[in-house]
Specification:
The structure is a homodimer of 625-residue chains. Chain A has 625 residues and is α/β, with parallel strands linked by helices. Chain A is built from 23 helices and 19 strands. Helix content of chain A is 37%, strand content 15%. The first copy, chain A, starts with a helix and ends in a 6-residue tail after the last helix.
Chain lengths: 625, 625
């Protein structure tokens, strides 16, 4: 390494040598692991080498420095390159690098934020760029800091619609602080990509989406260097560097050859490759630290005063309206930000948008980018609330799943749930959202029934970590709780006492259950009514006590398919069998059509009449306990 | 109506009058319903009028005629226009049109296939066009029939990434039999769209995505007419008509005004509007019937001979490999088609692709389009099998949800499920797919554990209606069943008898459960092992019998989050409380990392050791029955 020892680490020749080192290390760690993507790392090695040696501003010792640039591997399978980069930066040792993909190592198959220098989990393609848009949007519009967001994308992932949602929003919001680096190595997992090396296809698309394309040879360090320089000179647009690269670059036996995706080199081959690449190096790159710019508009240090809305018992208020009101109140907290999918006048996020236009982000009808923006803002420490119709979060389920792996702290609020929405029909009815959100690691699922409860839960959401979901209702419903009451997450409320059976409901069906309980009381049947506003975590204790008191007669009622929602949450809570129970689950079992909300609730068998009927039948039965 | 009575229905003046009628009827039916989207219908009325009067080839009396064109309302909220069109075509009466959105009417808020002239449910924006791509692909590559696919899109939905997946695939596959009609009325739900009337943005994007754009005034019937003519003259590309339109066109009080999305006109206003639009008309359009072209390559009439693969008991075979083998065998059925998201060498769909390249469709990494293509082919009566990693179906959940509403018959096969995949880490591990797919109306969820079982189930999938999902496993696992055995959907298999407890598992955990049962037997504990290969519908009878026989001691084991999967399916089956049970649910409860499959199964507490330990503890306990 005598040549490089005499080089300043900012010299291009150093970057060239560094690129070779990154290749060698990508091979070494993946061959040691016996799995991984060395060839996909080798194609992008020069792009990363020039970046970290000459452009990236990052203090590896202080990954939380707010002035740091962000570098996101949207092509998460280039993890060997990412970890080789950490070694070159001195963030990890060579020995740790060699633990790649081993059990217990933080250097997993795809990067996750268990590593301090990783912002978000990637590996589901087409997500790193949309999240980068969220980070860049925070940088430009909220932090107002000069950090730059660099995102390495593969070419296969350019087929994902989410990538074009991201380019679109990057262009629309003129995110000149974002540079996407497209590693066009021509080969996907199972052969040539859709457009191979036809770089012009990408150039024209990127340009049409409002971004500034630069086409280069991705192995020409001078060209790379010039492109990054251009990217940093304000164009008023995001830059997209379209780099023609060679998969497996640097090792002649596999360069540009099919059949080498996600395959490691056998030891003998690795040895030849390392030799051809100039042997093992231990160059240390001195990444420039960010200038200690003062943070933009200083955040308010005094504790913000949040005055939640209050609703009178005689009022009828939709929980989605209460969400809007409460979000507006939370606006007093400077870290609270909101985004919506062009339905803010329905979700009522528009109240916040009008009061705090600088902290509201319109994502139009692009739900993947909606959730990705929330994740990006979570990376920057904000408290994002993202809203759309509950049904349309299903569009972003992969992003929500990955946000769980990313340890992101995001709040999702879905309005217009269930058949209760009425005339619009099944396409607009969320009937699977509780199942979908419960099955996310560490998630919280809330489903309030009245306005005061909603306001309190929205306030709790602001302080809750993880993926926190709230389901709201379209129609105005009676206010059943006083404004002073508390609703801890994980709790429930017994709204009516009774020992003949327990009716467990939440949201719209809670009101139907209360009506049913009135009817039943007239007939001498005392129904306990439990408001399960916290669907996850669930209040197992109260449910078990109810089973105990009622001889195990439990009736669950939900405006949701029978699978995965409230009924299942209750069954899980009672699964230990300590208190045997017969759980009758009322849910939507046939495909609904259009009609008035009351007609559809009746047709689905989840209105007061059907609840009362099911209760009568359940009370008449014996639980074989 | 004296003017129009003298007009041939193919005259442009007739089309102009028809457009006015469609507007009037859109107002009439939505005002009567008190809900709906008249203004979004009025903007597209001239586009539809010219189409049905002069270009569409469709026999309204024979909606199943294979030669019919397809007309899909991707902007499903223009349902008043759609139903007004049905009236003009004589498909429904004026009286039925006026039942719009009423309970029991087939004319729902958004079109669904309960109506014979509707191919698929729309209303979740950005889906009609991707599905149209699937239909057009079938027309060009499978049916080889001259029918044309016409798709009406709104401008707000152009923000959805799925639209760009669709344009991309339409361009890539040169679907000149597809015409997208973009109704650019400038106004979305809550104000101006992202690009308003900047038509050039759309033109450049569409062109960059390989389609042929035509920009017109969407109220100039001559221009519309010319554009449709151009669309039908083979350009070798799909045509995209970018029509500048006015929301609420024809009624001066609301034309191009904000605040009128999804709002109906009050009766007095409707009266003024109808007057301004020239009053109520009852023009009948004579849509041209398709020429009775002989169907393309005649489908084979003799019953196809499917020879399923068989595997020997001593073999170790991955269920994903068995899927590939079985799909190849099903290739003998000419209606079976397959598509994959650029991972066919992992899902093993590549075996089919090689043998039947004409019936295999590469969708690259665009899972929304992957599922949409399957739905489109289902519209044409094919039997599609779509495959990718199980985790990545979460990208298309909204499409799967809508496919359920569309009554589509599609088969989804997800490989690489759970922590068992090992080194690649959590981004590639499906841990929510069972929950996600169970919560789809009328779905079937299968999870085989061995190769012979997989082959049999794949064959059953071909004949199964609805959304049919199969989860396959990455690793080669022992063949536990003979090749002659049958596995009816809805059934289960007791692989080992025992009355001390029942262990319920499927897929990878079934093998761990068998190992555990061996260990337990050595200790004198007899575990009944149930293979729950049909997770939905579930074999409740066998589960109840197991609870009965084991004193209610049930242990479920799944490579999935604890919510919504096998554990919940079992709890549901036992929910009637007839046989009290203590159900201990082993599942993945902490975020996994990378490692060897065995290490990760152990870390998640779902390997043989943990199963045995949980079994011991369960057997030691008493169920308070």
């Amino acid at each position: 390494m005598t040549v490089t020892e005499t080089l300043a680490t900012t010299d291009l020749e150093f970057a060239r040598q560094l690129g070779q080192q990154l290749r060698v290390d990508s091979i070494r760690c993946s061959t040691a692991a016996g799995s991984g993507h060395p060839t996909s790392s080798m194609s992008a090695a020069d792009l990363i080498a020039v970046l970290i040696a000459r452009y990236l501003q990052y203090d590896w010792a202080k990954p939380k420095d707010p002035n740091n640039d962000h570098l996101i591997y949207s092509k998460g399978h280039a993890s060997p390159l990412c970890y080789a980069m950490f070694k070159a930066a001195g963030a990890i040792t060579d020995a740790e690098m060699m633990t790649f993909r081993k059990f217990g190592s933080r250097l997993q198959g795809h990067p996750t934020p268990v590593i301090p220098w990783v912002d978000v989990a990637t590996g589901s393609l087409g997500q790193g760029l949309p999240i980068s848009v969220g980070v860049a949007l925070a940088g430009k519009n909220l932090d107002k800091l000069p950090y730059h967001v660099w995102t390495l994308c593969g070419d296969s992932e350019l087929a994902e619609g989410s990538i074009w949602e991201a380019f679109d929003k990057a262009g629309h919001y003129q995110l000149s602080n974002l540079t996407a680096i497209l590693d066009i190595n021509r080969l996907g997992q199972r052969g040539e990509t859709e457009y191979g090396w036809t770089l012009d296809v990408y150039r024209r698309r990127v340009e049409a989406f409002g971004c500034f394309p630069i086409v280069i040879d991705g192995h020409d360090v001078t060209a790379i260097d010039r492109a990054y320089g251009q990217a940093l000179s304000a164009t008023g647009k995001p830059t997209v560097i379209i780099a023609k690269t060679i998969k497996g670059k640097g090792f002649s036996e596999i360069e540009n050859k099919e059949g080498w995706h996600g395959k490691t080199l056998p030891p003998d081959m690795a040895e030849r490759a390392i030799k051809e690449l100039g042997g093992i190096r231990h160059l240390k790159v001195k990444t420039a630290k960010p200038e200690a710019t003062p943070r933009g508009p200083k955040r308010i240090e005094v504790a913000p005063v949040v005055t939640l809305p209050v609703y009178k018992p005689e009022d009828k208020v939709a929980t989605r309206k209460a969400y809007g009101d409460a979000l507006l109140a939370l606006g007093a907290i400077p870290d609270v930000v909101a985004m919506d999918g062009e339905v803010s006048n329905s979700t009522h996020a528009d109240e916040f948008a009008k009061a705090y236009p600088d902290r509201f982000f319109e994502m139009w009808i692009a739900e993947q980018q909606l959730v990705a923006t929330a994740v990006g803002m979570s990376v920057r420490g904000y408290k994002p609330f993202a809203s759309t119709f509950a049904a349309f979060f299903s569009r972003a389920y992969d992003f929500i799943r990955m946000a769980g792996i990313s340890e992101a702290n995001i709040r999702l609020v879905g309005s217009h749930a269930g058949v209760e929405i009425g005339q619009d029909g099944p396409s607009q009815m969320a009937l699977e959202d509780l199942a979908m959100l419960r099955a996310v690691h560490g998630s919280t699922v809330l489903y309030p029934c009245d306005a005061n409860q909603t306001a309190k839960l929205v306030a709790e959401m602001a302080d809750r970590d993880g993926i926190v979901y709230m389901r709201t209702t379209r129609a105005a419903t009676p206010v059943v709780y006083g404004a002073g009451e508390e609703f801890p997450i994980g709790g429930s409320r017994v709204l009516r006492e009774g020992d003949d059976l327990a009716v467990v409901a939440a949201g719209i069906t809670l009101h139907e259950s209360l009506k049913a309980a009135e009817q039943l009381a007239d007939e001498g049947i005392e129904a306990r009514v439990i408001d399960l506003y916290s669907v996850k975590p669930v209040d197992a204790e109260t449910l078990r006590a109810a089973a105990e008191a009622t001889g195990g007669r439990i009736l669950t009622v939900e405006d949701h398919w029978p699978e995965g929602g409230i009924g299942d949450a209750v069954l899980e809570a009672l699964s230990d069998g300590e208190t045997p129970a017969r759980v009758v689950r009322l849910a939507v079992r046939e495909m609904p059509g259009s009609g008035k909300p009351a007609e559809l609730l009746a047709a689905a068998g989840i209105d007061a009449e059907h609840i009362a009927a099911a209760a009568r039948s359940l009370v008449g039965s014996t639980v074989s306990a």
